[in-house]
Design a protein that fits this description.
- The chain is α+β, with helices and mostly antiparallel strands.
- The chain has a single domain (about 5-160), classed as Nuclear Transport Factor 2, Chain: A.
- Helices cover about 30% and strands about 40% of the residues.
- The protein is built from 4 helices and 7 strands; from the N terminus they run ααββαβββββα.
- Strands 1, 2, 3, 4, 5, 6 and 7 form a 7-stranded mixed beta sheet that branches.
- The chain is globular and about 50 Å long.
């Protein structure tokens, strides 16, 4: 690999780490800026969102209240970047997601992100994100491709923190 490829890989991995930090703080405005304007996010039972406006609404609905930082902790690992060229790449990583609460038993989920990245104005951005849920403390091992419904332990933790879930 040449130095430019190594730099691109590092920048893409930093993009994913920054995503997790913004999601957990929460800093929705900074989070949305990590995406291309035409980005698509598929989070199964949490929705499929297109473009900055839908991403902002979806992340706002799925985040803790701004005065209760780190209700969640999204830890990503085993990040692999593939199909890298000067302007596009794909990648995947595992997610260890935890809800941080006073509940004595840990609640959370395990999953995999599959991403498409695009370089825009010299910066790597997400152009597509797909989350596959693999295990949930509410459901156990998840067979197939989708979590059957929003994780109740997350909704409960958000309610205890004062965040109000959107009514569908």
């Amino acid at each position: 690999m040449d130095p430019a490829e190594l730099t691109d890989i590092f920048e893409i991995q930093q993009l994913r780490s920054t995503y997790s930090r913004c999601l957990d703080r929460p800093d929705v405005d900074a989070l949305v800026e990590l995406f291309t304007t035409d980005a698509e996010c598929d989070f199964g039972p949490y929705g499929v969102w297109h473009g900055h406006q839908e991403l902002h609404a979806g992340f706002t609905d799925g985040s803790s209240s701004p005065d209760d930082h780190f209700l969640t902790m999204h830890v990503t690992t085993n990040h692999v970047i593939e199909n890298l060229n000067r302007l596009n790449a794909t990648g995947s990583c595992y997610l260890l997601g935890q809800m941080l609460s006073q509940h004595p038993s840990p609640t959370g989920f395990l999953g995999r992100y599959d991403d498409d990245y695009r370089k825009v104005d010299g910066h790597w951005r997400f152009s597509k994100v797909r989350m596959t849920f693999l295990w949930s403390s509410d459901s156990g091992r998840i067979e197939g491709d989708k979590l059957p419904e929003k994780q109740q332990s997350f909704l409960d933790a958000r309610a205890r923190a004062g965040a109000v879930p959107r009514s569908d």
